[in-house]
Amino acid sequence: ISSEFTLSPTRIIFAILSALILKQAFFKSEEIPFVMELPPYRIPTARSIFKHVIFRTGLYLRKIGGIILIASIIVWILSNFPRTVNFSKDYVREIGQVKNAEMTEKAKEESVNRLLLEQRGEKQSKSVIGIIGRSIEPVMKPLGFDWRLSVSIISGLAAKEIVVSTLGVIFQADDNTGKSSLVEKIQTQQDSSGYTLFTPLAAFSFMLFILIYFPCLGVVAAIRRE
Q1: What pTM, to 2 d.p., does this model score?
Q2: Distance CA 155, CA 137 (A)
Q3: Beta partners for 136?
C-alpha cells in the first residue's frame, strides 16, 4: 500500500466519468469561450528539476513532521488507553500452561504468540479507538471493513497519508511475532469471524474507497479558496 493509495489509471478514468456525469446532470448551459495564451513549453533543465525536487521534498517532510506526526501520536494514545482492561480470559495463566505443557519448543512458541496476539487484539478493541471503531463498524461492514479499517478511514479526514500510519499503529508492525513489516502484518490479519481481512478484492475495494471518498481537510481548504 503506497502512502497515498495511488491508483493512477483509476484516478484518470474516475475523473473523466465524473466530469461527463456532472456535465450532463448539472452543467448543461452553454459554455462561454475561454482563451488563454500559453507560454512556449521547453524541456526542463537538470538544475530546475533538482530545485523542484528539493522544494517539494521539503514541503512533504514538513507535512510529515506536522499533521501526520501529530495524528499518529493521537491514534497511538487512543489505541493504548485505558491501560487496564478486563479481559475475557486469563491470558497469563494460559500462557503459563502452554510453557509448562509437553510439546515441542516451536509449538510452544506458536501457541504463546497466538495468545499474545489475541490478548493484544482484545485490549485494542476495548481501547478508546476500538470503541470508536466498533460504533461505526456497522455502517462500513457491508463494504467488508472491520472496525480497524473504519478507524483508519476516519483518520484520513486530516490527510490521506494518515490512513497508512493509522494502520501501522493499529496493526503494530513492530511487535515481537516475527512479522516485521506492515505488509506482512496486514496479509495475516483476520476479522472477528476468523476470515482473512485483506483478500485481493477487499484490498482493492479499500484502496478504491480511499480514492473516491470525501477529501481531506487540506483539499477542502484549497477548494474553498478556489
Answers
A1: 0.65
A2: 14
A3: none
**Environment class of residue 126 by beta-carbon count within 10 Å: exposed (0-12), middle (13-18) or buried (19+)?**
middle
The number of residues making up the chain comes to: 226
- Per-residue confidence band for 192, with pLDDT thresholds at 50, 70 and 90: low
CA distance 216 to 154: 10
Indicate the SS3 state at residue 95: helix
Residue 24 scores a pLDDT above 60:
yes
In three-state secondary structure terms, 122 is helix
Residue 190's beta-bridge partner residues?
196
What CA–CA distance (Å, rounded) separates 12 from 138?
31
Eight-class DSSP state of 159 = -
Closest CA to 212 of 173, 156, 164: 156
**Do 71 and 165 contact (CB within 8 A), yes or no?**
yes
- Identity of the amino acid at 71: A
With cell 497519508, the residue in question is: 161
